[in-house]
Amino acid sequence: MTPERWKDILGNVKDNFEVEEEGNFHDDEEGGIDGEFIIFAGPLGQMKLEYSEKPAVVDKKVSFSNRIGARSEVKYIYSEKEKVRKMKAYKWDDADERWVEMEAKNFNL
Q: What does the DSSP assignment read for 89-107?
């Protein structure tokens, strides 16, 4: 997913559906995740699209010991230049009162 494609999808949603909420988020986990979301009344009910961008993992270091009860630790090394971008779609489930992720194979992008 490219930032340009995300802007196209965002514009399409704003033109065709009633937007309930939109905003940005940041999480310091996994090298720093930045993203945007939009919640709207879609054809399947209340829907949420989420676009996120985070640094790509370039290396993974595992440290462990063979002793009983010893802990193992995984440390990820993140790229300063390369980014991984994703879009996820969610549908609101009234019965469970939570967002349920929709499968990507059902998208017609």
A: EEEEETTTTEEEEPPGGG-
What is the pLDDT, as a whole number, of residue 15?
94
Q: For residue 23, how many C-alpha atoms fall within 13 Å in the half-sphere facing its CB?
A: 4
Q: Is residue 99 part of a domain?
A: yes
Q: Which residues contact 96 (CB under 8 A, 6 or more apart)?
A: none
At residue 76's C-alpha, the angle toward residues 59 and 101, to 5°, is 110
Q: Specify whether the CB–CB gap between 98 and 85 falls below 8 A.
A: no
Over the stretch 43-101, which tens digit does the pLDDT of each residue have?
Answer: 888 999 999 999 999 999 888 777 777 788 888 888 889 999 999 999 998 888 899 99
Total number of domains constituting the chain? 1
State pTM to two decimals: 0.77
Please indicate, yes or no, if residue 86 is contained in any of the structural domains.
yes
Structure tokens at 99: 């967002």
